[in-house]
Description:
Blueprint: E1 12-14, E2 26-34, E3 51-52, E4 55-56, H1 57-67, E5 87-90, H2 94-101, E6 106-109, H3 116-121, H4 124-128, E7 136-141, H5 149-162, E8 166-172, E9 181-184, E10 190-194, H6 201-204, E11 208-217, H7 218-227, H8 240-247, E12 252-256, H9 259-262, H10 268-288, E13 292-293, E14 299-301, E15 306-307, E16 312-313, E17 317-320, E18 324-325, E19 330-331, E20 336-338, E21 341-342, E22 347-348, E23 352-354, E24 357-358, E25 363-364, E26 369-370, E27 375-376, E28 381-382, E29 387-389, E30 392-393, E31 398-399, E32 404-406, E33 408-410, E34 415-416, E35 421-422, E36 425-426, E37 431-432, E38 435-437, E39 442-443, E40 448-449
Parallel strand pairs: 2-5, 2-7, 5-6, 8-12, 13-16, 14-17, 15-18, 16-19, 17-20, 18-21, 19-22, 20-23, 21-24, 22-25, 23-26, 24-27, 25-28, 26-29, 27-30, 28-31, 29-32, 30-33, 31-34, 33-38, 34-39, 35-40
Antiparallel strand pairs: 1-2, 3-4, 7-11, 8-11, 9-10, 36-37
Bound molecules: uridine-diphosphate-N-acetylglucosamine (UD1) and calcium ion.
Amino acid sequence: MAIRFSCILQVIHIKEYKGFAKQTMNTYATVVLAAGKGTRMRSTLSKLLHPLAGQPLLSHVLKSVEAIPSTSVFAPWRESVATQRPIVVLGHEAEQILSAFGERCQYAMQHEQLGTGHAVLAAQEAVDALAPLPDTVLVCYGDTPLVRSEMLASVLAEHLSQQATVTFLTADADPSSDYGRVVRDSHGDVREIVEVKRATPEQLQITEVNSGVYCFERAWLWESLHALPRNASGEYYLTDLIAVAGVQERRIATVRGSLDETLGVNNRVQLAEAEQVMRRRILERHMYAGVTIIDPASTYIDEEVSIGTDTVVLPGTMITGKTTIGSWCRIGPGTTIYQSSIGERCVIRNSALEESVLEDEVSMGPFSHCRPGAHLARGVRMGNFGEVKNSYIGAETDVHHFSYVGDATVGEHVNIGAGTITSNYNGLTKEKYHTTIGDGAFIGCDTVFVPL
Length: 452
Ligand code: UD1
Ligand code: CA
């Protein structure tokens, strides 16, 4: 499989930041590691494609990386965003990731998965092809989906202001966690990062852990990675570079973040933990923006959903995919909506919608189903076990009781009587037929339309 290398690489110019305004130009490249086997997920799907709030794990990291220049710290370089692309290191299940992300990133290949240090080295050629050559390499792991752009920006800023050889993000975790432990000496200076496998019982009690976000001085990074021997686990750990920097008395800086932001997803238990944090963040974003969510614990809203102000979301509701909902709606209880567009002042109770469009002031439910291609015009009332599929229902039409409208065009101000069915499917020829009902039609109960 051909992996495309492009010359448009992620370079951000940092000319000015807080206390060191107008210093010489600094640049950085971003490398995201995504080549690991993800064995602990026990899945045939790449770990980094497992969805979190409706988006693949890796896409959350990429989103944060892409948003760095638009955070306050790097605001002056906002206009350069479009030409920046992170370098993603691929290996295991590379094709799956390539087809999911395509041109959004550029890629480097790690043909054998010999550890995180080995993975970063796989990106050397791509980083060194950058012009201008970056001074700094920002490394993130693809399996830490909660990290925010502001946090990445502050690691970069600390790295520059400290003029460190390496700067990394830490957090406090429970002693039972599986994160690498940050070992400091009696002066509080970092000596090394010790992985759980190799930690002594005393080191396992250390609560400061490595979050997996680093800034390295580029030239030192390559030189040190080339010199790094395989460790006792037979791998090249990126984390072993910290001890190397310590022995060389290089400057090692750290930024302390919160575990909520740097949770690593290695297995499905951690995936569920990350999901909970991400879901809460999304709900809070909507609540602060003017949406009432009666019961956040039973409400699930995907990352890409947008909801207008003064809409109320009732318990037991899932809103997924790229769904948009207007203002002053009541959604739920017990409602699922996928990839749909809902207008203003709609009421949807105990119902399901997929890939459907509801214009303003539609009332739906209880217990109705809009399947792909359903389009309910302004003021349609639909409820009590109605189903609509691939059909347009004109404004102010009623579809109330036990009805199925499929592959149909229904006019305005129509009354669809109870038990009305459009018999759109010819079981012999396997063809679907279209039904057309004009404006103002009154359809009596128990009517079956057999289109020809
Ligand atoms: C790693 C850190 C640990 C830290 C934790 C934070 C190392 C050795 N350990 O542990 O100190 O606390 O992350 O979440 O770095 N990958 C590759 N190629 C490889 C191996 C891994 O690209 O050969 C990628 C994986 O796809 C993953 C990332 O690197 O996205 C981290 O690897 P993983 O095996 O999950 O490391 P942890 O054991 O979590
Ligand atoms: Ca991990």
